[in-house]
Amino acid sequence: MSDAALDQLYQAPPAEFTAVRTQLAAAATKRGDTAAARQIIAARKPTLAASIVNRFVHNTPDVRGRLSDLGDQLRAAHSAMDGARLRKLSTQQRRFVDDLSQEALHAAGRTDPHGRIVDGESTRAPRGGCELLRDEIGATDERHASGDS
């Protein structure tokens, strides 16, 4: 399967994933590429959180490089057993992931991920980006389960 087909498939909004997968498989079959068609049909629908991250990273090209650079720096500090540098980079990593999580949620149209309604009361404790993403996905999944989506 080509990278372009994978990109197209995993950029589809979750509600359109199955239809896009079917269209891509049909196109592969039509051009005689049965191996690609089988791979496309076997591609699993990502969770909502994975879908948000996939689309954000695809649409924000510098993110991969920034994450890779930070990873290289963390590995170098670990190899050098540089505790002070590791602490500094670990703090930087947490902030970076929190910021990216918030940006990804915003880009996905999750406009108020800072709290949710539980039993009629708003819960708005300051949270990190990863926790916000988990909370938003949980709230979205609860809305889908109850038919409130």
Please supply descriptive tags for the structure shown above.
single chain, 149 residues, mainly alpha, two-stranded antiparallel ribbon, 7 helices, 70% helix, disordered C terminus
How are helices and strands ordered from N to C? HHHHHHEEH
State the shape.
Answer: elongated
DSSP, total strands: 2
**How far from one another are the termini?**
33 Å
How much β-strand is present in the residues? Answer: under 5%
Radius of gyration: 19 Å
Largest sheet report: 2 strands, antiparallel
Structural class: mainly alpha
Spans with pLDDT under 50 lasting ≥5 residues?
Answer: 115-127, 139-149
Number of domains: 2
- Mean pLDDT score: 78
Helical fraction equals over 70%
How would you describe this structure to a colleague?
By secondary structure, the chain is mainly alpha-helical. The chain folds into two domains: 3-45, no CATH class; 54-146, no CATH class. It is 70% helix and 4% strand. It has a two-stranded antiparallel ribbon with strand order 1-2. Strand 1 and strand 2 (121-123) form a beta hairpin. Helix 4 crosses helix 6 (83-107) and helix 6 (83-107) runs parallel beside helix 7. 15% of the residues are buried.
